[in-house]
User: Fold these one by one.
Assistant:
Number 1:
Amino acid sequence: MKIRHFRWFFGGVSLLFIIILANCQQKKEIPRDGPGTLIVNSEVSGDIYIDGTDTGTKIKSNGTVIINDVANGDTIVTVKTAEGVLYGSKEPALVRPGETVEVLVEKAFMVKAPEPELIPEPAAVEIAEEPIEITEEPQPAPPPTPLADPAETAYKQGLDNLNKGEYELAAGNFTEAIRLNANYADAYISRGTVYYIRGQSVRAKTDWNRAAQINNNYASFARAYENSRISEYDKAIADFTDAINRGICKDLALELRGSCYYQKGDHTRALADYNQALQANPRLPVVLVNRGELYMDTGEYAKALADFNQALRMSPKYVNAFAYRGLYYNAILDYDKALTDASSGIRYAVKNSTEFANVYLVRGQSYLYKNDTEKSKADFNRVITDCAERLRADATDYEAYQGRAVAYSDGGDNSGALKDYGEFIKYAPKKVFGYSNRGWSYFNQGDNNKALADFNEAVRLNPKSANALFGRSNIYFKLEDYPRALSDVNAALQINPKSAQYFHHRGVIYDYQGNTDKAIEDFSTAVRLEPKYAWAYAYRGSIYYYVKEDNDKALADYNNVLRLRPNDTNLTYAWYTRGLIFDERKEYAKALADFDKVLQFDPEHEDAKSARRKTQAKLASQ
């Protein structure tokens, strides 16, 4: 038996059909305007339908059906199983009179009905006297092995690479499957998953929408993702729930529904969905990273770190896992580890994606905290350039505005940040992030009224946004409205009861209210939660020195400050105050060294100049 291959073109699409002719039948192509017979082998499972719907001719898995004549005009012919799987073509084939159609249904054969042949009468022959040698009748050749579908092969390779965390290879495999079969819905779903994991959300949306166009089963999932991107969280949750109930992309639907709950401030439901998503698919690291982010927001840093570590064990090249673990290390002031993680992620980051922006932002922030402004500026500029390229491709990519705005803000360009946050809000008007972060930019510019308006809107959208409540508390503090400042930071602490930053801020409020005992208590909690929190030591040291007159405790705190942040010009007063303590202890050489450090940072520091002259006089009189 032979297999013949040829192409049939229509509508600009090339489809490959295979004719498998039985060795016992005539090898002739079937004119579509003539009669023919479809013979279905018993290995085909399920019922078979002709004409593309279950209202067409129905046959069992072992039998024949006659394809009727077509007098004139075009006709549509498809073959599918009862489960809805089409063979030979993923789309109905348009057949015109006089053309030829061949359809492969696994082991099915399209052949022309055999015509009876005239068998001539046997001629008279003489029987030979010698014996006739009888040879063994040749056995029929075994049936051919079905050819593997190359699109399916590429798709399975993609799934394997996806599970291994080889995202670039997986994306290439799925793209090849789509090239071979432009209507491969599952390949679009899986490639969209890769894009989503890597932070290429616009591409993910495009692929998932295409899958929904091909297969309506994916419609609710694709629609839900689109609504989640425009902050229509209730609509998105309803559609994700529908997809989950029908088993459509269940693991991703659970993760994405959890993210909607998270954006709404419902941490309990978000956590429940993340946990279910991991049960449905333990090899989906994006769930671990998102759950880790949630744990960081609620102050459960040990759990957050465990999730980031697990994500990287599962997928050692997962860029966002490096980015978020780096963010965690920055939060606990371990900048060297943050730098290591960000640099590792940069090795695998794909350009024009949120993952690319994330790792460079984390590294830039780490350099900034270490006072390496040149390197931090270089990293922020990389983010700005990459986001600009994304925006040239799609001016509505609000995540690109987000990344560039953060880079501008951290680089000290508040004007650029404000402009991009405005664009972010334009395209994502219901996302809390835009308002809360723009509020911080206004705060840095000293525009308290605009900052307060943005924080109010952020709190309105999500009353459980700890960042927005904390920001508004800072505005009220600047406006000397201490009761409101205290109320907002207390609300933030209810959401995140393990934030050293929030305790430090509340301690400052108590200090300004004259409640120094509560202030010391909060500063002590801050350094217990985060032993490297230099500012908490600095404020507590000031209370010990100026209010409690406890020089020993003050000196211990200032020693910690200057050990942790020896080159931070914002902590110049720590050097000055410690110099005063050394002077009082008659350790004049140490006092002079501290005053010199102050003048190195600020040559016009009059108090340091005066204190230095007095200490020099005391030293000279000894």
Note: The CA atoms of residues 43 and 107 lie 7 Å apart.
Number 2:
Amino acid sequence: MNYYYAGGDGQPVGPLTAGQMQDLYRTGTIDDTTWVIEEGAADWKPYAAAVPSVEDDPAPPPAGPECRHCLAGNPPGARFCESCGEPLDEAAGAVLPPAADAEPEDPPPPAAPTVGLSKHAFLSHSSRDHDVALQICEILESRGVSCWIAPRDIDPGTPYDEEIIRGIESSQTFILLLSGSSNESQHVKRELMRALRASHPIYPIRIQKVEPGPKLEYLLEGIHWVDAWAPPLEEHLDRLAELILTAGPDAKGHRAPAGRKFGVGPLWRVRRGWRIAGGIAVTLSLLAVAWAAMTWRTGIISGIVDYVTRQMESRLGAVGEREAPRTTKPADDDPPAATGGSGRYAALVAEGAEAAAARRWQDAINAYEAAVALSNQFETAMALDRAKNALRGERETAVAYARAIAAGELSEKKGDFREAQRDYEGAARSAQSDADRAQALDKARRAGESIALQARREDVDRILRAAVEFEGQKDWDRCSEECGKALAAAPDEPSTNRVLELQKRLASAMAEEVKNRRPVEQTFQIGCMSKSGAPRKYPASGQVRDVSGEVLGELAIEIEFFGTTAKMFFTRAKRNSRADLCTFRNDDAVGLVRVAEVDGVSFSFRITELKNGLAERIETLAIQVTAKR
């Protein structure tokens, strides 16, 4: 029996007999820890467990012809191959043993060991990740997985691109180190396309927490991966090495490994069939829970669970036939839960599905974690991840809602109602329940009412400031007018009280002024002319005095711009404010009397002379004024 051992570069060395292996062991070339495989065996073993002693090594069988079709050995003198039935004559390519007296020829170059070469992997990586790639290569080769990696395995003096193609085509699997650098590397994309063209199984390993770019996303559609950015790196690669060593590639190049699925899930999307399977599982689970809730007898509940389990198996099996590339055949040594045959596992999945449908994410996580502990099925692990993400999202949303409410209340206390309204509206958008949303919207509505109230209060303040100015000028009429406006615009009781207080003060000041007023008894003539330079009969204005001689103000008359009217106005002496009293027209008759009152003084104006000129414009106007108080 021949043996091969793993050389220093990870390549198989052999074939060697047991005696030759013993000689290498005695010379120190190999030791007890050297990986050795027996020709035709399935696994590599340490030297001590793989190679028997020389004395125990059976004598090799007599050499017979070797079939050129299947390379199988045959007994001496055989005419047909015992393995494939092909003829063993020279025309068919039989390999005859050398003559007894002929010198032995050098043995032909050994074929690579069956397991070793079939598990040989091409390690594709960006040049920026070369140190990590060498570390991964070393770990995989220590697990018995030989790797082809550039530039280590490129022969000197050979074209780089030709060696890359040779490495991919001579390898049985393809390992892709996914990182930010490999996303940008055109060489990595070309190598991946070449591996897909060669129908190699693809094993992506994410060494950084990044998503594949558009090109890699398209090429890696539906392929599982390993996350290996968090130490220790060895633990992430143990399962990968086990899969490469125990499961060969299928005809299409996409692996269907035995037992649990490889990696943590598909890179992007779950196929439609698995979404259908998940919907079937959730529906059947909800039916089972509802039926169990209406019955309280343990036997009935157990029967329901078993029935649901069988239905789930049949539905998932049908979907699995449609989604052949996504299904896996359970390993012989997997626990019964891995095949979906455990009632406890199915019950936990149903419980998790029910809790997830009711958005009770923590209950769903607890149920799914218990199910994963029984059997780490891909669908259940994905449901667990979705429940964890949903719970994390709800918690983050709840924190955002609480922060927005707190910020709105703080702004409200500061009197910044606009900012408070914005905060409350943001809280309503992040609310998880209708009650929280209604609460936030109610706070936003009250903040809006406060904004409107604040604006009306500002209007009242502006009106009252104008009224106070008129109060200082003792213009009681204008002050009273502004107080009326403020009272009509007052939005609340405090604003109304402020207006009433000003009105009360105004009434008191006016009463005091009336009390201190002295009588007025005065008559005089004033007039106006439109011709400039003509001699005047009467002055254009006249002062109004009380009996003590104090000047109360001045009366004046002016012809307006178009000359068809003239206006009489009174200018107060102390307040320097002007009040319009009456207007005269060009068609008024002589002797016409008009009256007016201001600051308690009654005025009587009688026309004593009115003369019109061209275009019926007033040329001369004389007025007799009588003032009394």
Note: The longest helix spans residues 434-472.
